[in-house]
Amino acid sequence: xxxxxxxxxxxxxxxxxxxxxxxxxxxxxxxxxxxxxxxxxxxxxxxxxxxxxxxxxxxxxxxxxxxxxxxxxxxxxxxxxxxxxxxxxxxxxxxxxxxxxxxxxxxxxxxxxxxxxxxxxxxxxxxxxxxxxxxxxxxxxxxxxxxxxxxxxxxxxxxxxxxxxxxxxxxxxxxxxxxxxxxxxxxxxxxxxxxxxxxxxxxxxxxxxxxxxxxxxxxxxxxxxxxxxxxxxxxxxxxxxxxxxxxxxxxxxxxxxxxxxxxxxxxxxxxxxxxxxxxxxxxxxxxxxxxxxxxxxxxxxxxxxxxxxxxxxxxxxxxxxxxxxxxxxxxxxxxxxxxxxxxxxxxxxxxxxxxxxxxxxxxxxxxxxxxxxxxxxxxxxxxxxxxxxxxxxxxxxxxxxxx
Length: 403
What we know:
29% of the residues lie in helices and 12% in strands. By secondary structure, the protein is α/β, with parallel strands linked by helices. The strands form two sheets. A six-stranded mixed sheet has the order 4-5-6-7-9-8. A four-stranded mixed sheet has the order 3-2-1-10, covered by helices on one side. The two termini are 30 Å apart. One of its GO terms (molecular function) is hydrolase activity. This is Calcineurin-like phosphoesterase domain-containing protein. Residues 1-47 are annotated as: Disordered.
């Protein structure tokens, strides 16, 4: 059995459940502004894609749009509620491209924990979109429920990519209209975290808090060296170098996407997090270097990168590239209305051109207006209250430099 922190003593018993509230939690709760606003449109299940599209541009432009690209991450369809959300999306009328326009969906990883649920989910999405793009997330490569079906997580990765090939799901670069869409394989490494640690409290180890260390298995030559693993996944993109260059030549705008986080600025500061060590298992420097190389000649507003993994809704521009996260997330996160979405997803980021409007999301809104202070390790009030409640006063004894 995969060890994790017991719910009774640590409600954030999965690493990515350790989500902080908004910096202005009460005010934002009253305004119900935890994710991009839900468009006011039909509430019927078949209207979800239309509602997401309506949020991206004025209604008169909808009839003229020929190419639309929707994005979503962290579907987690092992949860029946999430699988039901997928099935409620409108089914495509006719063969791909037979409708008035062309709708593509970008899925930024963490579809399902089992290969069978993964295949069912992707098959359902292919019936609903003219094209579907995918990159693997960490949950997709878990083995704990596969019953010994795969020797290791690399073998499962091959099985998932084979399933995508059979279902017509794109895992390589492709041009849709004037837009180039480029999936980027990645994995996280601890050295991605460059910011000062919070040492005023004792937190569970990465091995205890993150199920990946137990649910994934790797070949002996990679072992537990996370930087070697991150480099291995990054090099998987090399086989697409020629295709990437071809897509860049044909496209006016480029959308790259990954499951993991390319920059630490796309995650709240450690003092804001219920699990301050979260940044050590979310991102890759290799990923950021690669996507920057792809977007090197992009003009303003022509470069976008979509990511997932942390379940934080995000929309911001950093050094000329727009970064977007639009997670479905876990049902319990949606019920608490903190991160993740339902009625507003999938998010339409492109309608014959990138939508220039930056959408409201609690944490990217906060950092779009406030300077990041990575040297400040004083716990946010909600984090201090959390540690006091679940770990007791002794946890707050000041640690020595030796730990």
